[in-house]
Amino acid sequence: MSTTTGKKVAILGNGVVGVALAKGFAAHDNAVVFGTRNPQGEKMQQALREVPGASAESYAAAIRGADLAVIALPWDGLVQTLEALGPDALAGKLVIDASNPLDEVGGTLQLAIGHSDSAGEVVQRLLPKAHVVKSFNCVTATHMVDPKLPDGEPDMFIAGNDATAKAEAAAWLKAFGWRAAIDLGGIEESRLTEALAMLWIRYGLRHQHWVHAFSVLGQAKA
């Protein structure tokens, strides 16, 4: 059986990022369940309309029996949500962290943490038995699956401590139409990919252009 079909995928968060990635997993014949504070809320119901066949549960119920999970939570709710799940949550499972630690200061988006820490590392500390891989955080939600750019193929950076989990994340990226997953190393390299997300945002604000992505030319051969 393919490594990218027939899985139960828990999507924690029902915003544009969660919905975009849920569509990708569902399109590859995976069972998608959203984790949310309010499974009956209108925002959740709208997400379910956008991802036919998906379901919604509490965060704890959504991850129960999941083969992997995606963190698509806003920064201001991420720590509280994962603390409530507890350190044993998703033990031994791949957790793809697509979050960015963004804060608005004086009307300008900034990184809430950085340089010596990252959201990726926070997620790994809160889920110490899971295998966290940072990915999908430096591109618009509409390009997370099947990114089509007229002037080239984009690449996605990943970071994490477990080689097997990173290989699995790379397989998902390949299935979702990315040219390559570029492995930067341990989860601490999330500091760089989250800063890269900030660069992506600043470029978008300056040019009012939100469909750009990054590509590494002249890549080293494996």
Provide structural commentary.
- The structure is a single chain.
- The chain has helices at 16-27, 42-50, 59-63, 75-85, 119-126, 163-175, 190-207; strands spanning 8-12, 31-35, 55-57, 68-71, 94-97, 102-105, 108-111, 131-134, 155-160, 180-183.
- The protein is of the alpha/beta class and 222 residues long.
- It has an 8-stranded mixed sheet, with helices on both faces.
- Helix 4 (75-85) runs parallel beside helix 5.
- It is globular.
Offer a few descriptive terms.
two-stranded antiparallel ribbon; Rossmann fold; alpha/beta; 8-stranded mixed β-sheet; 222 residues
What's the gist of this structure?
With 222 residues, the chain is an alpha/beta fold. It is 34% helix and 19% strand.
CATH homologous superfamily label: NAD(P)-binding Rossmann-like Domain
Q: What portion of residues belong to β-strands?
A: 15-25%
Q: What is the string of helix and strand elements?
A: EHEHEHEHEEEHEEHEH
Work out the count of structural domains: 1
- Overall geometry comes to globular
Sheet with most strands: 8 strands, mixed
Helical proportion? Answer: 25-40%
CATH topology: Rossmann fold
Q: Could you give the count of β-strands?
A: 10
Distance between the termini: 26 Å
What do the pLDDT scores average to? 96
Q: What structural class do the secondary elements suggest?
A: alpha/beta
